[in-house]
């Protein structure tokens, strides 16, 4: 793939347009690629997103994408649109959404089990899921919900999705995870929070240890 520094110079050359000029939009996207905000394989903004973010018409947004493709910076992926990377002769395809969800959930559960994601720490964000797994916004939300309802993670309102500690893993559940598993409200202490978790994750009669601080504060 051509160095983005020289590409920026090519795009900038002779440009005197406004912020609505397709070359200006292309230049902004190239800068994001150059700075690592859009790494290899990351999805670039769709035509609709470019129209919304830059207040331009569809034709301008399409030309901005074509500019990047002509410079060899992006390639088409079926089911995703354009991603960062040199074009290939064949149009790539993504796994089905169902497989995409399963792969992401299995990967995160594995990290929790191996201790790579510590108890009561955030398992992922919508942005990180979209970047790592090429997931759409809705698919990323579904991945977090699946982790939540499977009992491997819990959701705190206005905080995010966090890893369940080992003593509450669903593989150890006595009665099974409840279907109506709720969003949890942040508590003053981990024992208070874990009392809520114990009820919904299938650990009746569980007693919390004393002296635990709340890592979410």
What's the arrangement of secondary structure elements?
Layout: H1 4-12, H2 22-34, H3 47-54, H4 58-70, E1 74-78, E2 81-84, E3 92-93, H5 97-114, H6 126-133, H7 137-150, E4 153-156, E5 160-163, H8 190-201
Parallel strand pairs: 1-3
Antiparallel strand pairs: 1-2, 4-5
Helix pairs in contact: 1-2, 2-4, 3-4, 5-7, 6-7
CATH architecture of the largest domain: Orthogonal Bundle
- Binned, the helix content reads 40-55%
Radius of gyration (Å) = 22 Å
Strand content: 5-15%
The CATH topology annotation of the largest domain reads as Arc Repressor Mutant, subunit A
- What is the element string, with H for helices and E for strands? HHHHEEEHHHEEH
Spatial sequence of strands, sheet with the most strands? 2-1-3
Rounded mean pLDDT score:
79
The CATH class of the largest domain turns out to be Mainly Alpha
Largest sheet: 3 strands, mixed
- C-alpha end-to-end distance: 44 Å
Low-confidence stretches: 6-19
What name goes with the CATH superfamily of the largest domain?
A: Winged helix-like DNA-binding domain superfamily/Winged helix DNA-binding domain
Number of structural units classed as domains: 2
């Amino acid at each position: 793939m051509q160095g983005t520094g020289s590409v920026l110079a090519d795009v900038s050359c002779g440009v005197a347009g406004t912020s609505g000029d397709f070359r200006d939009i292309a230049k902004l996207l190239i800068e994001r690629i150059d700075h690592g905000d859009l790494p290899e394989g990351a999805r670039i903004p769709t035509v609709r997103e470019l129209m919304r973010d830059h207040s331009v018409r569809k034709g301008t947004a399409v030309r901005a994408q074509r500019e990047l493709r002509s410079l060899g910076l992006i390639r088409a992926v079926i089911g995703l649109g354009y991603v960062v990377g040199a074009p290939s002769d064949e149009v790539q395809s993504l796994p089905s959404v169902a497989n995409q969800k399963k792969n992401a959930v299995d990967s995160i559960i594995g990290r929790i089990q191996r201790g790579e994601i510590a108890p009561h720490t955030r398992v992922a964000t919508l942005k990180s899921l979209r970047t790592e797994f090429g997931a759409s916004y809705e698919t990323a939300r579904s991945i977090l919900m699946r982790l939540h309802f499977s009992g491997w993670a819990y959701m705190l309102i206005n905080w995010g999705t966090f890893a369940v500690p080992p003593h509450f893993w669903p593989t150890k559940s006595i009665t099974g995870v409840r279907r109506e598993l709720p969003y949890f409200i942040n508590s003053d202490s981990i024992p208070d929070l874990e009392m809520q978790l114990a009820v919904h994750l299938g650990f009746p009669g569980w007693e919390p240890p004393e002296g635990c601080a709340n890592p979410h504060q």
